[in-house]
Write a sequence for this structure.
C-alpha cells in the first residue's frame, strides 16, 4: 500500500466517523487526537499500547497533512531532499 492509498483510506474513515462534511473537519480536532496519542505513547510502558499509539499518530498526521492541503508524495520527497542535503553539509 502506498501513501496515496493510505491517505484515501484515512479520509474515508474520517468522513464516516464525522457527522459533518469532510471539508468541515477541524484540524483542531485532529491535532487534539494527535496530542492525546503522543502523550499516551510517552507515558505507556506497554509496547502494544506504544505500537497502537504510533500508528494512530501516523494516521492523524496524514489526516492533518491532507486537511492543510499537502501533497504527501511530493512534500515527503521534498522533506527527504532537505534532510539529505543538510546531512551532506554536516559531513
Amino acid at each position: 500500500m502506498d501513501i496515496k492509498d493510505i491517505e484515501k483510506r484515512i479520509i474515508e474513515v474520517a468522513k464516516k466517523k464525522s457527522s459533518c462534511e469532510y471539508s468541515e473537519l477541524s484540524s483542531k480536532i485532529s491535532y487534539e487526537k494527535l496530542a492525546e496519542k503522543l502523550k499516551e505513547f510517552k507515558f505507556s510502558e506497554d509496547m502494544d499500547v506504544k505500537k497502537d499509539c504510533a500508528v494512530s499518530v501516523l494516521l492523524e498526521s496524514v489526516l492533518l497533512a491532507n486537511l492543510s492541503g499537502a501533497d504527501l508524495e511530493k512534500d515527503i520527497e521534498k522533506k527527504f531532499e532537505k534532510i539529505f542535503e543538510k546531512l551532506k553539509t554536516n559531513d
Notes: Residues 34 and 60 are 6 Å apart (CA to CA).
